[in-house]
Amino acid sequence: MSRTNFENLRVYKLSEDLSDRIWEITSRWSHFDRDTVGKQIVRSADSIGANIAEGTGRYGTQDNKRSTNDEQPASI
């Protein structure tokens, strides 16, 4: 069984673009806003790509499906 390279997945590329755009926006905020809400938003956006990478590192199809379904609520 071949394994999917997560970096070639469209959804992973979109998550990286989202993270970059959020970083650009929050970097222009005041120090207080950036240090409170900004950091949380950036970490949340970064975790989308991390969850995709972790999910594609699983070995079986059922593991991949389970991982994807487990992560959906956090990514919505």
List the SSEs and their pairings.
Blueprint: H1 10-26, H2 31-56, H3 61-75
Verbal overview:
This protein is mainly α and 76 residues long. The protein is 76% helix and 0% strand. The chain has one domain (12-75). Helix 1 (10-26) packs antiparallel against helix 2. The longest helix has 26 residues, at 31-56.
Cα radius of gyration in angstroms? 15 Å
| Helix-and-strand structural type | mainly alpha
The secondary-structure element order is: HHH
| Tally of individual domains | 1
How many helices? The count is 3
Low-confidence stretches: none
State the major sheet.
none
* Quantity of strands, as a count: 0
Helix content: over 70%
Cα separation of the termini: 30 Å
Strand content: under 5%
What's the shape? Answer: elongated
What average pLDDT do the residues reach? 83
List keywords for this structure.
mainly alpha, 76 residues
Q: Could you provide a short overview of the structure?
A:
The chain has helices spanning 10-26, 31-56, 61-75. By secondary structure, it is mostly helical.
